[in-house]
């Protein structure tokens, strides 16, 4: 493959201050390398809350910051359209972290071929990076038992929905939250009995009534007022697995701490923040654990699919940060 190819991709036009808006993401021409080993056509691109954190000027040490002009990337299900690498054949479906482009050049590193007979879209959710995030946070770090009362916020989202099911499978009492009525209905339909609205004015009281003896393990996804209420409800010597703070990512102060943070010390609550790039050595263990559950239908999952190709990425991400999704939000690329 030596011909020069120009394609379209997405980049950050400028770093947002406060809320992300559609004009912060723009299309631009991308020149592909003349001797690309692989050419890929994306089929689905995952849209995830961490993308907004990559746009924050202070950045994070575990992942490259997106500055003005930076190309955007994400977890992608793609089809091989040309290959000089024997392990990849035209027509193969692969997943990996890839640039958001109409055509993608790759050297094959970090890509996994979808096994024959598998549902490819499962590798966008329970068998993909969001499923891995849930497994690391709940199974490796949280390690709930039958003695635990577990709180999972945003439990109708991509990570929360898997994390809550893992806690339930381990025998814990599981309290789940969601900010919309249809999400709470979906959670009840999937077998969760204690379903709360973390946006409700009386959420702290609802949480106390649901767990009068206190929460022993909190899998935190939301932040803000919901996290404040969770801290109030924590039992002494409890654990918090800090996965995300999605309600704060569109704020001008996205790293603001809860006003009652001191209670964590008073209650001797341990806090375990984590980021999945530090756990990639466990990827094969995760696949061995999760793949049989998915194959048997023992894990419920749902794609929230947005059509419209690359032009829809910005609005899809904005909607996700607003809580519009039910399940794992992805954008389909025609």
TrEMBL record:
<keyword id="KW-0560">Oxidoreductase</keyword>
<protein>
    <submittedName>
        <fullName>NADP-dependent oxidoreductase</fullName>
    </submittedName>
</protein>
<dbReference type="InterPro" id="IPR013149">
    <property type="entry name" value="ADH-like_C"/>
</dbReference>
<dbReference type="InterPro" id="IPR011032">
    <property type="entry name" value="GroES-like_sf"/>
</dbReference>
<dbReference type="InterPro" id="IPR045010">
    <property type="entry name" value="MDR_fam"/>
</dbReference>
<dbReference type="Pfam" id="PF16884">
    <property type="entry name" value="ADH_N_2"/>
</dbReference>
<feature type="domain" description="Enoyl reductase (ER)">
    <location>
        <begin position="18"/>
        <end position="331"/>
    </location>
</feature>
<dbReference type="InterPro" id="IPR041694">
    <property type="entry name" value="ADH_N_2"/>
</dbReference>
<dbReference type="Pfam" id="PF00107">
    <property type="entry name" value="ADH_zinc_N"/>
</dbReference>
<dbReference type="InterPro" id="IPR036291">
    <property type="entry name" value="NAD(P)-bd_dom_sf"/>
</dbReference>
<dbReference type="InterPro" id="IPR020843">
    <property type="entry name" value="ER"/>
</dbReference>
<dbReference type="GO" id="GO:0016628">
    <property type="term" value="F:oxidoreductase activity, acting on the CH-CH group of donors, NAD or NADP as acceptor"/>
</dbReference>
